[in-house]
Design brief:
Mean pLDDT: 85
Number of helices: 4
CATH architecture: Beta Barrel
Strand content: 25-35%
Low-confidence stretches: none
Number of domains: 1
Distance between the termini: 36 Å
């Protein structure tokens, strides 16, 4: 079973506007650690470099448990692989004030490649977060009432 690492904090703190699928440029020990599920996306974010590349920063991939001296640094920047047109489209949308690029989830494709879903999102204010919690609780109460 391939692990799916989800960034649950992102869906709570951000209003998602547009999603993209990207590949990741990883080392061997990073892939093995991801297969063990030793990844945290909670503090990670994506930046567009001046050379037109996307980089994931703040993503923590723990060292591979059976690794040796050639293990990877846990917090290194990792390059995202997208087509040039997609990168240009993302960079153009990020020029709007208040928008950011965040990772949503990480998974392995059917072919075994490590992929990441990223999204252009806008940060929620505290009252927006509270409102979404209220809406979720109301929907859950309605489902429970229908079941009874």
């Amino acid at each position: 079973m391939n692990p799916v690492i989800d960034n649950r904090k992102a869906r709570y703190a951000y209003e998602i506007q547009d999603k993209f699928h990207a590949g990741l440029q990883l080392t061997g020990t990073e892939v093995k650690a991801i297969r063990e599920g030793k990844v945290s996306l909670a503090e990670s974010y994506v930046v567009v470099s001046s050379s037109g590349e996307l980089w994931v920063k703040g993503m923590h991939i723990s060292e591979f448990s059976h690794g040796s001296y050639a293990n990877h640094p846990p917090l290194r920047e990792r390059k995202l692989l997208l087509k040039k047109r997609e990168i240009e489209k993302i960079a153009k949308k990020l020029n709007d004030k208040g928008l950011t690029l965040i990772p949503l989830k990480m998974y392995f494709s059917d072919k075994g490649w490590c992929k990441m879903d990223i999204a252009i999102a806008k940060g929620k204010h505290l009252h927006d977060k509270r409102q979404s919690i209220r809406n979720r609780e109301d929907a859950r109460d309605l489902r429970e009432a229908k079941r009874i």
